[in-house]
Write a structure and sequence with these properties.
With 167 residues, this protein is an alpha+beta fold. The chain is built from five helices and four strands.
């Protein structure tokens, strides 16, 4: 992922003209999406939706925490030698402890994902306010090593150009 910017415009016609000019560029942009009245909503664009970012963080955390929780639960039942689930038998009580550890890892992935605040949350909040004011946004993303067409962006006379985190 290269450079990502969101261009804020108060005129739909200028936004459409800029989108057409950017769509004709060579090499093409990786992402070019219009947001605002009559276009996509902010929630439909994955890059500008904090809920989608949080869900992706949770899934990534779960990939690590669930197996770790399984091993931790299994190890805990062997180390402590507690007979909490004695009714299930020797092997089964260790398996139950491991499954409980796995469940704890899964729940921990939700807590960990919710507690992390993205650096872009404030920028996204200000962009959401701009859309609610009736402005249009144009999300543009270039490939690695490709320069953002800054002159073309400035020729559209945007209200603001918000640079998002680079990959």
């Amino acid at each position: 992922m290269g450079t990502s910017v969101v261009v804020v415009l108060n005129d739909r016609k200028r936004m459409q003209q800029l989108r057409d000019r950017l769509a004709d560029l060579q090499p093409p942009l990786l992402q070019l999406e219009a947001i605002g009245p009559g276009e996509q909503t902010l929630a439909e664009v994955a890059r500008l939706n904090p809920a989608i970012a949080r869900r992706n963080r949770q899934r990534t955390m779960a990939r690590w925490l669930i197996p770790f929780g399984f091993l931790a639960g299994l190890t805990f039942t062997y180390i402590t030698d507690l007979d909490t689930f004695a009714f299930a038998g020797a092997w089964s009580q260790h398996l139950i402890g491991a499954l409980l550890g796995m469940g704890s890892g899964w729940m921990g992935s939700f807590a960990a994902a919710a507690s992390v605040r993205s650096e872009e949350d404030d920028r996204i909040r200000s962009l959401r306010n701009r859309v609610e004011e009736g402005n249009w946004l144009l999300l543009a993303e270039t490939a690695n090593g490709v320069e953002m067409p800054w002159i073309t962006l400035q020729q559209a006379k945007p209200l603001a150009v918000v640079r998002m985190g680079d990959g």
